[in-house]
Design brief:
single chain
């Protein structure tokens, strides 16, 4: 049976099994084609994208001072090098464990794998470079790619016993770059998608361990710990996130002296962390319940302590089982960072887009459609990239397979 016959059989079996199925398929297909035509026509013909070109820096970095832009560049280069270093070290360690000898480097094959894996991110970066009016962003992207390549090559040559020093180096480097940025440009001056990424990254980093501890506390045999964990989880799960952000922005000044009140982005990070940790705790609790009791009994038979049983036997399996739900919470948190603009007035990406349409040269021209589509596209790039990396991790760990 050739490919044409396979396609015809599939259409008959899935779209044209009966008269009603055929009518629905034709109608829905026509609507889909019409919607796609209107979208393509708007994007390439009728859309007025000059508002994005003029305000690209506002949408990406907000009102970040141009004289301090080198701090952001240094951070991107450091992050690229550290990321490449870790990826190269981990890849080589797996090859050694599998007994694979290093072969010749095939740039074409590696490039093809990279494009297939990260094409949403590459598409987003390409669009931003296309909209840019200078060559500097292109040079920056090439420099970051170079830093990643150098880091990967160095990481593949590190000895296997370098795991702990490498982890310490990576953490200290990233912390140092954050301090470099914060000390040069106050958090209140951050904006655009850089602020969204900053809020999401820090909140994800903090909420995950807190959520794990809350999940373990909810299953604790000590009544006080269990009640405190349950009370915390139910309190934050039952409160709207935007209400918590409003409280952090408005009411904190009534309880804390103004001299020690943290900046608005820090308050947003605290709220996102506390709120998402409650949901993360329930996700992890579901994973803990999925681990067969025989695993615990076997660990006890081997003489492992309760702490060793939890952190070496139960928790790794529980987290592996709920990877999709965990990444789903991270994606939701990334999208929720727009609420910080609505509730606290931060100049994040959506607020920056609204500010662009309020400028004198664009006011009253209905360009909110173009700016909103641009915002949606950037959030889609981030969320879809996280989703694809989650699926890749699931396949590697065999999630759902016995």
């Amino acid at each position: 049976m050739n490919r044409t016959e396979l396609v015809v059989d599939w259409l008959k079996a899935n779209l044209f099994r009966s008269v009603i199925d055929s009518i629905v398929s034709v109608v829905v297909g026509a609507l889909a084609v019409f919607a796609l035509f209107r979208l393509v026509r708007f994007v390439f013909v009728t859309g007025r994208w000059e508002i994005i070109e003029v305000n690209l820096s506002l949408l990406i970095t907000g009102v970040w001072p141009e004289a301090e832009m080198w701090r952001l560049v240094a951070t991107l280069l450091a992050a690229g090098f550290v990321g490449g270093l870790v990826v190269g070290f981990v890849a080589r360690s797996r090859e050694i464990e599998a007994g694979i000898e290093p072969g010749p480097i095939r740039p074409g094959r590696r490039l093809g794998q990279l494009v297939s894996r990260l094409w949403p991110l590459l598409l987003g970066v390409g669009l931003l470079l296309l909209l840019s009016r200078t060559i500097m962003p292109t040079l920056l992207v090439l420099a970051v790619v170079g830093a990643v390549v150098v880091g990967r090559l160095v990481g593949r040559r590190l000895p296997r016993r370098s795991t702990t020093p490498l982890a310490v180096f990576a953490v200290l480097t990233l912390i140092g770059t954050v301090f470099l940025m914060v000390n040069g440009v106050g958090l209140d001056d951050w904006g655009g998608v850089v602020l969204n990424l900053f809020l999401a990254a820090f909140s994800i980093t903090l909420c995950f361990p807190l959520g794990v501890m809350l999940a373990l506390g909810r299953r604790s045999q000590y009544p006080v710990i269990r009640l405190l964990s349950v009370g915390y989880i139910e309190l934050f799960r039952g409160a709207p996130l935007i209400a918590l952000l409003l409280m952090a922005d408005v009411t904190i000044g009534f309880f804390v002296p103004q001299s020690i009140v943290p900046s608005t982005p820090v308050r947003a990070i605290v709220v996102f962390t506390l709120f998402t940790a409650a949901y993360m705790a329930e996700v992890v609790r579901g994973g803990l319940q999925s681990v067969p009791s025989g695993q615990v009994e076997a660990a006890k038979a081997l003489g492992l302590s309760p702490i060793s049983t939890t952190f070496r036997i139960v928790l790794p399996q529980a987290l592996r089982n709920v990877i999709p739900a965990i990444v789903g919470q991270f994606i939701s948190l990334f999208k929720d960072t727009t609420l910080a603009g609505a509730a606290m007035g931060l100049r994040e990406l959506l607020n920056a887009a609204q500010a662009a349409t309020a400028q004198a040269q664009f006011r009253g021209q209905g360009l909110i459609v173009e700016t909103t589509i641009f915002v949606l596209f950037l959030f889609w790039v981030g969320a879809f990239t996280m989703s694809r990396e989650s699926q890749r991790l699931e396949r590697r760990l065999g999630v759902g397979n016995r």
